[in-house]
Specification:
2 domains, Rossmann fold, alpha/beta, 12 helices, 329 residues, single chain, four-stranded antiparallel sheet, 24% strand
C-alpha cells in the first residue's frame, strides 16, 4: 500500500464576517481529517458552501488555519515559514476553475510556463526553460508554436490545458484541482478529464479533486470525501461509494444526479435533497445534516457523530449500521 503523502488532522478554518454591524466568526471547516496517498486522486464533493474550496486553499497554505495539522511529505506545513515554505511550494500546485482568468493577460504563454521554472529551477537557462515550456505544451495537446501567443487568443478549454501545463511543469507531488471542469462545455470537459487522468497516471502526482461533477469524479478519482457544512460526512473508495453509499447525505447527493432513463429515475428509492444548506453562522447542533435528514433521531441533535469505519467507508452517522443494509435504488 502507498504511503500517505498528505495527512490532515482536526482542521478548523474560520472567517471574520459582518453580521448586524458586528464581527463574527464563520466556521468554514470543523475538525476535518483525512489522508491522501502518493499518486492517489481523492475527490472532495458537496453542495456549495460545504467548504470544498476552503479545504483546498488551506492545504496549500493560501489561507490561515485556526487549528489542526497539515502534514505534507512528513512536515507540518503550518509550521513552515519563509524560505522553507517557498521551497515546499515547488511540490504543491493548483489548477483553477476558470483557466482563462487564472492566466496573466499581459504575459505570453512561454513566459507563463517559464515563470515557475525561474522560481523553483533557477539553475536552468532561458533556452532550457523555453524548451521545457514547449515540451509541456505538447504534452497537454497544444503546440510549441503557441508559446508566443497571449491568453486571450485561446479558448476556455485551451486555457485550462495551459493551466494544467503550468501546474505540471515543476514536477509537483500534489495538485489541488479546484472545480477544473465546471466552466467547460460538455465535450471539452471530457477531454480535460481524460488529460488529467493520463497526466496523473504518467507522473504519479496526487490530486485533491474538488468537484460538483459526479460522473467526472467516478472517472478520475480513487476515493471520495464528502463534505457538508464544513464537516466530513463520509470517505470511501469511489466505486464502493457510488455502488452503496452509507451516509444519508451521500445517498441524497447521488440521487440528485440526472438519469437519462425515465423508468430508472422513477424507480429510485432515495429522494434528492430538499431545502438549503443551513447558515454556517448558526449551524445545527449535533450532526449538522440532521435538519435535512429523514433518519434523524434525538441523539442526532445532541451529539456530533464521529467518523468511524463502517464496511468500506468512514462514516459520520449515528445510524450508519442500520442504513448500510438498505442500498439506495
Amino acid at each position: 500500500m502507498s504511503e500517505a503523502l498528505l495527512r490532515v488532522r482536526a482542521l478548523d478554518v474560520s472567517y471574520a464576517v459582518q453580521q448586524r454591524g458586528r464581527n463574527v466568526r464563520l466556521r468554514a471547516l470543523r475538525g476535518v481529517s483525512f489522508e491522501l496517498l502518493r499518486g492517489e486522486a481523492l475527490a472532495v464533493i458537496g453542495e456549495s458552501g460545504s467548504g470544498k474550496s476552503t479545504l483546498g486553499r488551506a492545504v496549500l497554505r493560501l489561507i490561515d488555519v485556526d487549528a489542526g495539522e497539515i502534514v505534507f511529505r512528513g512536515q507540518d506545513l503550518l509550521r513552515l515559514r519563509g524560505e522553507a515554505l517557498r521551497r515546499m511550494r515547488a511540490h504543491l500546485q493548483m489548477i483553477f476553475q476558470d483557466g482563462l482568468s487564472a492566466l496573466d493577460p499581459r504575459m505570453q504563454i512561454g513566459a507563463i510556463l517559464g515563470e515557475p521554472l525561474q522560481v523553483f529551477r533557477p539553475e536552468l537557462t532561458r533556452a532550457e526553460r523555453h524548451a521545457a515550456a514547449g515540451a509541456m505544451l505538447e504534452r497537454v495537446g497544444l503546440t510549441r508554436a503557441q508559446l508566443g501567443r497571449y491568453p486571450h487568443e485561446f479558448s476556455g478549454g485551451q486555457a485550462q490545458r495551459i493551466g494544467i501545463a503550468r501546474a505540471l511543469i515543476v514536477g509537483p507531488e500534489l495538485i489541488v484541482c479546484d472545480e477544473p471542469l465546471s466552466a467547460l462545455d460538455v465535450s471539452i470537459k471530457a477531454q480535460i478529464a481524460a488529460l488529467l487522468k493520463s497526466a496523473q497516471q504518467e507522473t504519479h502526482v496526487a490530486l485533491l479533486f474538488i468537484a460538483h461533477d459526479l460522473p467526472a469524479v467516478r472517472q478520475l478519482c480513487d476515493r471520495v470525501l464528502v463534505l457538508y457544512l464544513g464537516r466530513v460526512m463520509e470517505i470511501a473508495p469511489t466505486e464502493a461509494l457510488f455502488r452503496a453509499p452509507v451516509h444519508p447525505y451521500t445517498r441524497a447527493l447521488l440521487a440528485a444526479v440526472p438519469v437519462p432513463d425515465p423508468r430508472r429515475a422513477r424507480a429510485r428509492r432515495i429522494a434528492p435533497l430538499a431545502g438549503e444548506v443551513p447558515s454556517a453562522l448558526a449551524p445545527p447542533s449535533g450532526c449538522v445534516f440532521r435538519t435535512r435528514c429523514a433518519h434523524a433521531v434525538d441523539r442526532c441533535a445532541q451529539e456530533v457523530p464521529e467518523l468511524r469505519a463502517i464496511g468500506h467507508s468512514l462514516v459520520a452517522c449515528h445510524r450508519a449500521e442500520e442504513l448500510i443494509g438498505s442500498a439506495p435504488g
